[in-house]
Amino acid sequence: MTETPHSPHDPRPESPEPTRNLPVQYEAAPAPQPGPYMPPSSQFGPTQFTPPPGPYQPPVGGPHQQPQSLPLQALPTGPVLVTVGDISVEQFRIVTPAGVLPAQGTNWSAMDMSRTEEKIPAWAIILAIVFALACLLGLLFLLCKERKTTGFVQITVQNGNRTHNTHVGVSSPRDVADTLARVNFARTLCV
User: Are β-strands 87-89 and 93-96 bridged in parallel, bridged antiparallel, or unpaired?
Assistant: First the structure.
């Protein structure tokens, strides 16, 4: 077995201990110092809590926290193009009770939370009983159906970390279709 000699310009170390190529080298954290928020460690034994230095230290953002958004610049106003519940959509901005959002990059979602019930009305039951005694044709009144829609459509508008929800009450399938069409039109304005 032969070894090749290392040149003096070779970056590899000659130590028998392997080195690790870490992207970032971290230093050990300094030992906590006794202060106004921490008693000396000899009084209560070793502590596991390290208080921040000084009276207040703002939280440090990590990969799990969203960056704080900057204040919105003044967006130009314009005529209201569509209104969905308490949300008004203009060309460059969306006005909600929670504040003003820029139209560009806004996400819209709509969820139909309505239901339609179908039942025999009370007048048809009464007429079926009355005419059933006279002739059996009174039973045809039981074929009458009455449809009733109740509920709402939930609409969510989101831009960055700002969100606004609203509920639009509906009383017919036509109202549901109209509300969903308004949301789809607002989506086309926010591209």
Answer: antiparallel
Q: Measured between alpha carbons, how far apart are the two ends of the chain, in Å? A: 68
Cα of 106 vs its chain's centroid, Å:
12
- 33 by Cβ neighbours in 10 Å (0-12 / 13-18 / 19+) ranks as exposed
Residue type for position 124: A
pLDDT of residue 191: 79
d(CA 176, CA 170): 6
Provide the token pair at 87.
Answer: 């949300």
Q: Which of 110, 76, 91, 99 is nearest to 160 (CA)?
A: 99
CA 41 to chain centre: 45
Average of per-residue pLDDT across 148-166: 92
**Could you tell me which of 171, 129, 131 has the C-alpha nearest to residue 147?**
171
- Residue 76's pLDDT band, with cuts at 50, 70 and 90, is confident
**What are the C-alpha distances in Å from 186 to residues 31, 62, 84, 85, 166?**
57, 34, 9, 12, 15
Q: Which of 26, 25, 43 is nearest to 34 (CA)?
A: 43
Q: What are phi and psi of 111, to 5 degrees?
A: -125, 125
Residues 6+ apart with CB under 8 A from 127: 138, 141
